Each structure stands twice: as structure tokens, then as C-alpha cells.
Amino acid sequence: MENFNKISICDVTSLFFLIFSFSIPMIGYHVPKYVLGCLLLLKFIDVYTNPEVYKSFFVRNKIKFLFLSFFFMFSVFSFLYTDDLKSGFGLIANYLFFIIFQIIFISNQLLLRDIFKSFLYGILFLEFVNIGIAIYNFDITQDYVNVINSITYERLSNMVKLHPGYYSLMILISIFINNYFVQGKKKWLIFLFQACFLFFLASRLLLLLLLFFCIFLIFNLDKKYKLGVTGVILVCLFFLFKVDFVNESVFRFSNFDNALGIIFNEWKCGMEICIKEITSDFIARIYQIKSSLQLIFKSFTSFLFGYGIGDFKFELLKQYEVNNFEWGINAKFNSHNQYLSTMLIGGIFNLVALFIYIFSPLVYLKKSVYKKLYILIAIVFLLYSLTESFLLRENGVLVFTFFVSAFALGNDFFDTRKFLEKNETKCI
Predict the structure, then answer these.
(1) How far apart are CA 3 and CA 6, in angstroms?
(2) Is residue 97 helix, strand or coil?
(3) CB count, 10 Å around CB of 10?
(4) How many CB atoms lie within 10 A of CB 201?
(5) DSSP string covering 195-215, please?
(6) Splitting the chain (428 residues) into consecutive groups of 10 residues, what average pLDDT does each group show?
(7) SS3 159
(8) CB-side exposure of 336: number of CA atoms within 13 Å?
């Protein structure tokens, strides 16, 4: 009973923080929301009991909090000139994570490596859950092609109720975390397992990033691991590229030769395909980008301020209609490009605010291991933004703001024990 009485709010907060970090990969099941609510409640109690400490912290880091709030403020500002208030409120609700994680991270007494390793183990747990579901659903009567098709891309992702793009994004981030915080043979086993899993999800851009990371690893491995890991990677790549589903990934780039024609209004309905019968994902992306650019540069006002957080999607669908892009209208496609979506919402000012948010942690990071890790993760976010509007989904906003806030506000906790002693408090 005596030990129980010594448990502080910060001890409980730390426990919930690790649970939350572990459960983020399971966002398809909405696990983190309940833990997030507990974290916020504990945070408010802690602020109430230590007001002077928190006041000092906010004053000392006011510029940092300002940089981290720019994007949220500009997005909310665009709500002032939007007509569809319901849609606007829906997206602003997702964007609250930009503020929530700033609040939560300043009460964290854990080392960042503990948080990130919890995230890594959460990803691994989810992957094993996925494998378990696949085995449970396995039909021994299926032929080879059907078996492969049942455990790739959207089919594999749907087993755990996650979009394949976000699933791939989180796995790649966990691979980077594994590289920095796990040692020995365990590191390479986890890496190879996750690299194979990422390949089966077939997210094209992230697979290219993984390939570059494989090359980076090979050149930076200890000599005793270099030959073995290189050999296993080559064998895995040979085997995986022999799998039939690779053809499906290649097909998604079909009609590449028509892309420039679409951009320059030279598309001709005729021999094989018409605008109303587009089936190529790649061609659809071209139409989405083209329509978005037309809206952005429609006027000087649209370039500066966009169309508002509630109206931008409606305006995009109207532009699809102008371009006779029926698939886009029926499926209600967004831009599939975060930079274009950001400008459609709030114009060039909103885009600048997004870049400030992404790069702000680099100004404050001092420990090289964390700075290098954040650069890798930031590159993933920046490149992923070329093919997905991931901040239009709660899953994407949650993962993005979690990591940016961790690196931006975790700086004071790199040497946690010394920092706690210096400030004579368990939380700050």
C-alpha cells in the first residue's frame, strides 16, 4: 500500500503514453481515442497542480508553440470564407491533433526512444495480427494466384481496417525507428520482416524509399552482418519480384504515354479508352492534379487564400465535371497531393504554414541521433505528400502530428533524468 501511495500523476501519464504509442498502429479499431482522452484528463490535472511550472515552460517555448500552431491557425482562418460549415467543422476536428499533441507532449517524462519503441512494437503486433487473420481466412482449395491476391495491397490492408497507404507509411517509419533504437540480430530480423510486409502492401513510392534505405543500410552495416544481410535482401527481392501481384502494381502505371496528352488537353477518346471509362489509377491521378492546379491558378485570390476548409472539395468536384472526369465525380476523389489540397483549402499562405510546421523541429533538435531520424521521417512525409492528401483523414493527421510534436517538444526530455532534477518536478 505504501508503494501504491507513491505513484504520481506523472507515473500514470507515462503508462498511458506508452499504451497510446503502442496503440496508434491500431487506429483502424479506434483504440487510441480512449487513451488519448485519459492523457488529456491527466494533463489538465497536472496543469492545475503545477500552474507556475507550466507557465514558465510556455513562456520559455512561446516561439516554438507559435511555429507549431501556424498551420492550424491558417486552416481555421479559411473557415471564415467557407459555405459548407459541416464539412469545415469535420476537418477542423481532425486538425485539433495539431494542438492536442502539443499539450500532451509537454507533460511527458519518458525518453523519446521509449515512445518510439512502443510505436515500433505496436506495428509489429498489428502485423502479426494481420498474419493471424490471413491464416484464419486461408482457403486451401484456392490456387496459387488467388492465394497471393488475397494477401496483397488493399486485401491485406482491409484485414485490419487500415488504408494501405497509411499502413505502409507507419511501417516505413517503424523501420527507421528500428534502425536507430534496436541493436544486434534482432534489428535485422525485424527489418527484413517489415520490408517484406511493406512490399506486400505495394505502396509504390514507399517501396522506392525502402529500396534506397536498403542501400543505405548495406553501406553502413557492421562487417559481420554486411554479407549475410545483403544476401538475404537480394534473395527476398528476387523471390518477391517473381510474385504475380507485382504485375498489378506495374499495371497501375499503365497508360503512362497518355499522361502528357491529358495535361496539355490532347486526350482523344477513341481506340482503347475514353475519359468516361478511365480504369488506370495513374491516369486518374493526372486528372486530379490537373483539376487542382486549374482551381488554384483560377484567380489571384484563389492562389492566395484558396476556397475554404469546407468548400474546396466541392469546388474540385465541379472542376472534374468541367474536365469530364466522371470517375473522379462518382468516387469524389480528392487531389491525392497534400500540397495541392493545402492550397485549395487556404492558398499559398496555408502551404507555407505547413512547411514551417514540418521543418520547425529541426530548429530545436540538438541530439544528432534524433535529428537524423527526424530528417528521414520528414522526407517520408514530404514525399508521401506528393501522392496522397493524408491530412484529409484522421489517421493521417494523427500519425503526422504525433511524430512532429514528439520531435519538436521532446527536445527538453533527451536527458530526462538531469532535466527532472534541474526543475525539481516529476513532470516538467
Answers:
(1) 5
(2) helix
(3) 21
(4) 22
(5) HHHHHHHT-HHHHHHHHHHHH
(6) 60 88 86 86 87 83 89 92 88 93 80 91 95 85 70 85 89 91 86 84 75 73 71 68 52 50 48 44 81 93 93 92 86 91 95 95 80 90 90 92 90 45 46
(7) coil
(8) 17
Q: How many contiguous H segments (helices) and E segments (strands) does the chain have? A: 24, 0
Reading the block at residue 137, the C-alpha cell is: 481466412
- Rounded Cα–Cα distance for residues 67 and 356 (Å): 6
Query: What are the distances in angstroms from CA 105 to CA 121, 184, 218, 283?
Result: 20, 30, 35, 42
Helix axes 338-364, 312-322, angle to 10 degrees: 140
Angle at Cα 114 formed by Cα 112 and Cα 116, nearest 5°?
70
Residue by residue, DSSP assigns 33-54 as HHHHHHHHHHHHHHHHH-HHHH
Nearest residue to 294 via CA among 272, 271, 267, 321:
321
Rounded alpha-carbon distances, angstroms, from residue 133 to 121, 122, 171, 244, 287:
18, 17, 18, 22, 37
User: How far, CA to CA in Å, does 83 sit from each of 79, 80, 309, 343?
Assistant: 8, 9, 9, 17
d(CA 77, CA 62): 21
* Amino acid identity at 115: I
Angle between helices 51-60 and 62-77 (to 10 degrees): 80
- Main-chain dihedrals φ then ψ at residue 160, nearest 5 degrees: -115, 20
**Angle ∠(95,101,105) on CA atoms, nearest 5:** 170
Of the candidates 9, 21, 191, 11, the one whose C-alpha atom is nearest the C-alpha of residue 112 is 21
Cell of 272: 482503347
Q: How far apart are CA 73 and CA 350, in angstroms?
A: 9
